[in-house]
Every structure is written in C-alpha cells, then in structure tokens.
C-alpha cells in the first residue's frame, strides 16, 4: 500500500529525520512510536506531502508522491496534531467545506458528511459552531475532516493530545473500528498504550532515526524476550527451592513468603515444570501471573530512557 524509502530532512544543522524507511500493507494499523522530538511529525508531514524531504521517496500503490502528488494525496486522509478547523463554522459546514476542497460534491458529499458525523459521534451537534465545542469534540471533528473523502490510508498525528479520558477512549475505539472495517491506518503517538491497543506493526523513532521496526510482538521481544512469572502459593516455598532450581536451571528463582517469581523466555513449559516441582512438596499455586515483554520495556532497552513529554519535531 505505502512504501517509505530513506526519508531525510534537516533544518540547518539539526537532523530531524535521518534515513527512515518502512512499508505499510493494506489493512495494517501501523504505529510510529517515539518520544516527542523523535521526528514522527516531520516524517508524517513528508509522507502526506506537506513538506518536501531533502532526499528519499514516498510511494502509494507504486505511485511516487513527488511525481504524482494528486494521485497520492487524494487517497490519503490526514489528521494533523494541531486542530485544523474553522471555528466560526458549524461541524457540518466544516465537513462540507473540506469535502469540497477534496473534490467531493453532490450526493457523495451529503452521504460522506452523514457518515463522518456518525463516526465522530457528533450527529446531534452538527449545527453547533466549532468555537463552542469542547477540546475532545474538536479532536473528533478533526478526525472526521480527515475521513470526509473516504481515504484508503488514514494518517493520524498524535490525535489524542490534551483531551479528557472519555474523548480519548472514543477516538481509540473509533480508529480501531475503522481499521477492522478495512481502512489502513498510520498512527503516531508517544503513548505506548495507544500503539499497543491499536497497531499490529510499528516503528520506533528516536533522534530522527528508526531504531526498531516490525510486528508488534517482535518489537516487544527486543526487551530481551523474558516474561516474568509470579506465583502465589498455599505454603512456604523454601523446602522446594532446590527442586525448583533444578527444574528451571537457567533461571534465578526468587522466593518470598508464600510466593515465588522467575524470568523465562517461554513461560508455558516453565510454569508446568515449576508446578510439578512444587507438588512434590505438597505446595500448590493459588494464583499465577505472567507478565510478558511490553513496548515500555523494549523502548527502555533500546534507548535507555522513558518516553518524555512535550512538543514533537
């Protein structure tokens, strides 16, 4: 569907994006994850044709953005990080205006406006001026504008910044539903939970460079691939520690009062071995928790720091 080849962008001596490449397949929910200032918004601006890269290429269905900008832009929907609405127009008037900008008219425009209002949950507010909207309502209408021409690829740049939890959840569920219905989505965020909730593939950017790329589970494994197993027990594990260590020779078993924990690459077989070793001493697990590698752990492993807050580059 979309191919990004070696994009690079500098501003004076500052390298904002340094050789970013990735592909997005039809129906993907593709995440661009990284701290603010990592280059996500600059990458999105180049992919959507808002700014020209210093070098590199963007192709949609094999058509170059540089050579065929109209073909590409008509098939992309962009939801920018900053609200792009006319405050003195109503929700419906904003959708009609932007639909006409995209070349949508007549019955198709009417149908698309109705669909976008439903998707955004704003049908009952269609005649209300945007200046009276809450921040969350503006964000939802901002997404609806990006959908007004029914794009094949929806690009969303930090769409939940600065909104309440209810509006954030509405937006995330809306994006997930659009993707399930077949729309290809590119989603940028510095919130790991959003990317894990929405995306099946992703790239992690930091300081303008792509430091990880692939399927969500594969990127999680960059944390080292170890799951943490915790067991609450119905007895003291001390008598069984030697047997546990023999059953799990590669792992360090930590024991406390009525519980044990260990780290393992493949938790399924390890849990079975631990339960069997404990049973020899008449000890049974009351509760078993398995914490698998996550994006937070992978990001810390790759960068040595947590995602930071603030503006993006």
From TrEMBL:
This is ABC-2 type transport system ATP-binding protein. Gene3D superfamilies: P-loop containing nucleotide triphosphate hydrolases. InterPro entries: AAA+_ATPase (IPR003593), ABC_transporter-like_ATP-bd (IPR003439), ABC_transporter-like_CS (IPR017871), P-loop_NTPase (IPR027417). PROSITE patterns: ABC_TRANSPORTER_1, ABC_TRANSPORTER_2. Residues 2-232 form the ABC transporter domain. The lineage of its organism: Bacteria, Bacillati, Bacillota, Bacilli, Bacillales. GO terms for molecular function: ATP binding; ATP hydrolysis activity. SMART domains: AAA. Keywords: ATP-binding, Nucleotide-binding. The keyword ATP-binding applies. It comes from the Bacteria. It comes from Alicyclobacillus macrosporangiidus. Transmembrane segments: none annotated. PANTHER family: LINEARMYCIN RESISTANCE ATP-BINDING PROTEIN LNRL.
């Amino acid at each position: 569907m979309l191919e990004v080849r070696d994009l690079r962008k500098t501003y004076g001596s500052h390298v904002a994006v340094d050789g970013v490449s990735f592909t997005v397949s039809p129906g993907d929910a593709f995440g661009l994850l990284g701290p603010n200032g990592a280059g996500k918004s600059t990458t999105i601006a180049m992919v959507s044709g808002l700014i020209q890269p210093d070098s590199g290429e963007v192709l949609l269905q094999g058509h170059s953005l540089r050579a065929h900008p109209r073909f590409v832009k008509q098939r992309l929907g962009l939801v920018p990080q900053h609200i792009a609405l006319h405050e003195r127009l109503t929700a419906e008037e904003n959708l009609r205006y932007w639909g006409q900008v995209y070349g949508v008219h007549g019955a198709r425009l009417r149908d698309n406006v109705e669909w976008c209002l439903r998707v955004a949950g704003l049908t009952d507010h269609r005649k209300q001026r945007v200046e009276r909207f809450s921040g969350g309502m503006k964000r939802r209408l901002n997404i609806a504008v990006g959908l007004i021409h029914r794009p094949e690829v929806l690009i969303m740049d930090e769409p939940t910044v600065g909104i309440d939890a209810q509006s954030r959840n509405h937006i995330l569920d809306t994006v997930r539903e659009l993707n399930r219905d077949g729309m290809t989505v590119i989603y940028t965020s510095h919130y790991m939970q959003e990317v894990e909730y929405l995306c099946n593939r992703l790239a992690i950017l930091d300081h303008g460079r792509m430091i990880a790329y692939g399927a969500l589970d594969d990127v999680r494994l960059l944390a080292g691939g170890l799951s943490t197993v915790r067991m609450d027990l119905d007895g003291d594990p001390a008598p069984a520690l030697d047997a546990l260590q023999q059953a799990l020779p590669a792992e360090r078993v930590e024991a406390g009062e009525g519980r044990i924990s260990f780290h393992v690459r493949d938790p399924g077989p390890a849990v079975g071995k631990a339960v069997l070793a404990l049973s020899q001493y008449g000890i049974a697990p009351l509760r078993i928790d398995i914490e698998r590698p996550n994006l937070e752990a992978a990001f810390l492993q790759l960068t040595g720091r947590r995602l930071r807050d603030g503006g993006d580059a």
